[in-house]
Design a protein that fits this description.
The chain has 85 residues and is mainly α. It has helices spanning 2-25, 31-62, 74-84. The chain starts with a helix and ends with a helix. The chain crosses the membrane at residues 6-24, 36-53. Keywords: Membrane, Transmembrane, Transmembrane helix.
């Protein structure tokens, strides 16, 4: 499944760049072409972001990538209680 999501990620980002370029370089007089290209670029970006975050979550869960650093905030409650006392 992660390989399928990785392929989707590459295709989605390729679509984003290709249709984004078409949207930016389209003739301003042809608004329909520009709008369709912009919508397809936005869909490619959304699918690419979703696939990227899915791959990151999967790689952290399987141990391929180390988990994000999370601060130990237990000392904050102790410091707060000492200040209010």
């Amino acid at each position: 499944m992660p390989k399928l999501v990785a392929i989707l990620n590459v295709i989605a980002w390729s679509g984003f760049w290709a249709f984004g370029f078409l949207a930016l370089t389209a003739d301003p007089a042809n608004g329909r072409q520009m709008t369709i290209a912009a919508v397809l670029a936005a869909l490619g970006a959304a699918a690419g972001i979703w696939a990227y975050f899915h791959l990151v979550r999967t790689s952290e869960r399987t141990g391929y990538a180390k988990s994000r650093n999370r601060a130990d905030r237990s000392h904050l409650e102790k410091e707060y209680n000492e200040e209010t006392a």
